[in-house]
Amino acid sequence: MKTRIISGAVIVVVAGAVLGLSTKFPLVIITSLAILAAMGVYEALHSTGIVKNKIITAVAALFAFILPFVENINLKIINTEIVCVVFAVLQFAVYLKFHKDISLDGMLGMIILPMAIAYGFSALGSIVLFKIDSYKLIFIVLVLCWSAISDTGAYFVGVAFGKHKMSPVISPKKSWEGLIGGMVFSVLAVMGVCLLYNSLIDYTVNIAVAVAITPLFVLIGVLGDLTASLIKRKCGIKDFGKLIPGHGGILDRFDSILMISAVLKVLLNYIQL
After folding, report:
1. Confidence band for 67, pLDDT divided at 50, 70 and 90
2. Crossing angle between the packed helical segments 80-98 and 113-128, to the nearest 10 degrees
3. With 0-12 CB in 10 A as exposed, 13-18 as middle and 19+ as buried, what is 210?
4. Residue 17 CB neighbours (<10 A)
5. 3-state secondary structure of 35
6. Taking each helix axis from N to C terminus, what angle separates 133-144 and 250-267, rounded to the nearest 10 degrees?
7. pLDDT tens for residues 164-221?
8. Which of 84, 86, 135, 240 is the most buried (most CB within 10 A)?
9. Does 19 have pLDDT greater than 70?
10. CA-wise closest residue to 130 among 139, 119, 120
11. In the predicted model, what is the mean pLDDT of residues 105-132?
12. 210 by DSSP, 3-state: which?
């Protein structure tokens, strides 16, 4: 537990420094997320053993590194969809070169999983670099409330009161009591953040809307967590990596955040806070 807390504190400090620099140097956050995306894809394919070919893994990691730049830099000659199509075709061609048949695991490893990870980090970059400055901070904090605060609340409530398992096969430690506790913690955190934000910033956030969408995004975060757990359990591994002491790998820390970011990016055009 001590190691986990220390690692978490270091992550917060580093993330805060990167976010601070991103205001004047947006390439800092894009490059940081691109590196995390590439590392996340590599550790996912390497640790699970879904894809054993080094060329396929390298192409997937390169794609994950490039996508955050394409998504968050206004390039007129290329866009996210084009990069994804080129990546899928290239991976498919390489896969056929080294494999005689196509398996579901192979498709998951060579195309779907890298795309999901890369898009999640790209979406997180879009949220951090959101063009409306008055929105930028609140969205970053909300993502943290829906993921980190929810995880913390779910952990403590689950340990104290958890009796009804949510998904014993996929994630035995998760309970329905923990889920409810995570939602309560998140709602309280969102209310506090919005009240503080409205008192400090010359803009009024609609607290009712922020609170109303919180349970939805907590559930989306849990879905991301369970999806990662399902992949790990299927592949017989405990963590995706060992980069972060007490937490595991990149994906072990970012699984819920990536799912939340991906959905939030899609909904940003429709949510008015």
Report:
1. very high
2. 160
3. buried
4. 12
5. helix
6. 140
7. 888 888 888 888 998 998 899 899 888 888 888 777 766 677 788 888 888 888 999 9
8. 240
9. no
10. 139
11. 81
12. helix
DSSP for 73-130 reads: S--SS--HHHHHHHHHHHHHHHHHHH-SS--HHHHIIIIIHHHHHHHHHHHHHHHHT-
CA distance 256 to 227: 9
The neighbouring-strand residues paired with 171 are 167
What type of residue sits at position 211? V
Other C-beta atoms lying within 10 Å of the C-beta of residue 104: 8
Helices 207-235 + 250-267 axis angle, to 10: 140
* Other Cβ atoms closer than 10 A to 198: 15
Q: Which residues, other chains included, contact 103 with Cβ-Cβ below 8 Å and sequence gap of 6+?
A: none
Q: Enter the tokens of residue 69.
A: 């730049």
* CA–CA gap between residue 96 and residue 27 (Å, rounded): 36
In the chain, how many H helices and how many E strands?
A: 11, 2
> Considering the chain, what is the average pLDDT of its residues?
80
The partner residues of 165 in beta bridges, in order of sequence, read 175
| Higher pLDDT among residues 205 and 124, named by residue | 124
Q: Is 25 helix (H, G, I), strand (E, B) or coil?
A: coil
